[in-house]
What we know:
CATH topology of the largest domain: Rossmann fold
CATH class of the largest domain: Alpha Beta
Number of strands: 13
Bound molecules: nicotinamide-adenine-dinucleotide, 2'deoxy-thymidine-5'-diphospho-alpha-D-glucose
Low-confidence stretches: none
Radius of gyration: 19 Å
Number of helices: 11
Strand content: 15-25%
Strand order of the largest sheet: 3-2-1-4-5-6-11
Number of domains: 2
Helix content: 40-55%
Amino acid sequence: MKNILITGGAGFIGTNFAYYLTKNKPQYTLTIIDSCNYAGDEQNLEDIRDKITFVKGDITNKELINDLVAKNDAVVHFAAESHNDNSLNDPWPFVQSNILGTYTILEAVRKHGKRLHHISTDEVFGDLELDDPERFNENTPYNPSSPYSSTKASSDLLVRAWVRSFNVKATISNCSNNYGPYQHIEKFIPRQITNILSGIKPKLYGSGEQVRDWIHVDDHNAAVALILEKGKLGETYLIGADGEKNNKEVIETILRLMGKSTSDYEHVKDRPGHDMRYAIDSTKLRSELGWQPQYTKFADGLKQTIEWYKTNQAWWQPQKDAVEAKYQAQGQ
Ligand code: NAD
Ligand code: DAU
């Protein structure tokens, strides 16, 4: 395996993955395809421009995907519409990119006999009660709640069917909530950091009791690289770093790290159908492949992320007013 095609490589996790591979696995030749929707930007890859080939294009474009897959040994498939709130306003782009896009990739890897690693989310399992002693594992039944998570669940099921019916050489990973540099400011953590930097109060949906299982994006990407190289074909791996925190705790930690009063935030309208809790049991990944997270202290990873948004204001400022206006219009 030498030539790797990364879909969605100009978005948050895909950009970090491209940087991770060029730094830690320089033996690979990388091609990145991204349509550069509102969350993806070719400029994100500026510092590694001479080490990658960038193609601006859509994963639903059958001819383009066929051509790129034929030229590469493996595909790491990150491209997707990724934000739950957007999926509640307009599910169609989610059906297109997440379901039809994954179908297009699957048909190309089937035709050319190439390796695929499909990136998915823990949200396909639905949610847990706050006091549930169980966490999600590889055998948890699918039960997605939102248009976003149901399209991701659909894409996972397509991959599983293509493995079973056509012997496609694929693996799947389902990861919990990522944080780190290059995350779009519509998402919870960067929205609050950039709110504080803009003199706006952080916004907590509903009661803020909802729990997410936070993982630094570099820990996610190290696991993806490991699964790509050593994962058993046809298998699913759950990725999580034991990072459960409720949203209220996260907002208070951000405020504290940014030198503000921990009560200086406001409650806004809750998300319809808001999932209560996600929690990952990553025993399989740790015991079979030897993965361990490097960011074991959430506050340290968060400090690094806050610094990144402080020093890269030109990256997010042009979008801030429009993102906040959209949220304000829906009472959030
Ligand atoms: P993102 O929205 O920041 O990036 C997605 C990228 O995909 C963007 O650059 C976008 O332009 C591109 N894209 C979307 N539709 C496309 C299409 N039709 N053709 C080509 N490119 C297209 O999202 P992210 O947070 O980086 O998520 C990446 C992947 O990881 C997604 O599959 C998501 O479901 C999954 N995931 C995300 C998280 C998280 O916490 N962010 C956790 C688990 C899994
Ligand atoms: O679990 C993995 C998933 O994590 C990924 O599959 C998704 O792509 C990613 O967006 C993320 O989904 P969430 O819906 O959990 O993330 P989001 O950042 O939108 O919200 C995190 C929590 O914070 C959620 O409970 C809603 C809440 N929230 C969000 C925003 C934007 C707030 O309280 N205030 C906010 O302003």
